[in-house]
Amino acid sequence: MKKVFVFLVLMGVVKMGIAQRGFNLSERKVRLGLTVSPMVSSLKPQESGVTRNSSKAGLNFGLMADFNLDDNGNYALASGFQAVIGGSKLMYDAGKGLNDYRQNAAEYNMKLTYVEIPLALKLKTHIDNGMGLWGQFGTYLDFPVSGRTDITSLNQTYDKVGILAQMNRVNIGMLLGAGIEYPLGGNLTGMAGITYQNGFVDVTRNSKWDDGRINMNSFALRLGVYF
What we know:
Elements: H1 2-19, E1 30-45, E2 50-54, E3 56-68, E4 75-92, E5 106-126, E6 132-153, E7 156-162, E8 171-185, E9 188-199, H2 206-209, E10 214-226
Antiparallel strand pairs: 1-3, 1-10, 2-4, 3-4, 4-5, 5-6, 6-7, 6-8, 8-9, 9-10
């Protein structure tokens, strides 16, 4: 996780240096920026025997990249390289969950970290004073880099049980978002909006958990700055 954070910081510093060239938005084919977006994630069971106890506050942070498809910046491919920290609390009936803990009903407090690559079509309309409204629709690829859970069963708690090996190695889903951009002076442009992600792939490997399909969904307050 520390290596991912250092990489993102270095990439941001490189882009800050490039931004000093002073290109206008309409002249730039690629815009790079940084995002720090608080979010709420939840794991949604699809079969009986597992129920969601609560959602979890999390964070999405890293690099944003808009590849403009026209000279005015009205159409773009939105991508990036980000870290996602989320999870949820799930209640497993006896006979469900990891082999070492399935003798009795147990609560799993999941803490999951992914590296994410979004890919969406972004549409933007310009309004007065350099402000603009944007919307996007697309998909994303998530690759797990850390997975831990606290397990509580019969009033006994097992802390920080590693579950990375029991997670599926990729997650993919639908990405929706909308918001506003506004000039901050010079080459800086602020961005704020709301995004929703709906996972299509089972987060946990069913052969290890016997829990059917578990999807991860999230709402995020999208905050960022383009350089």
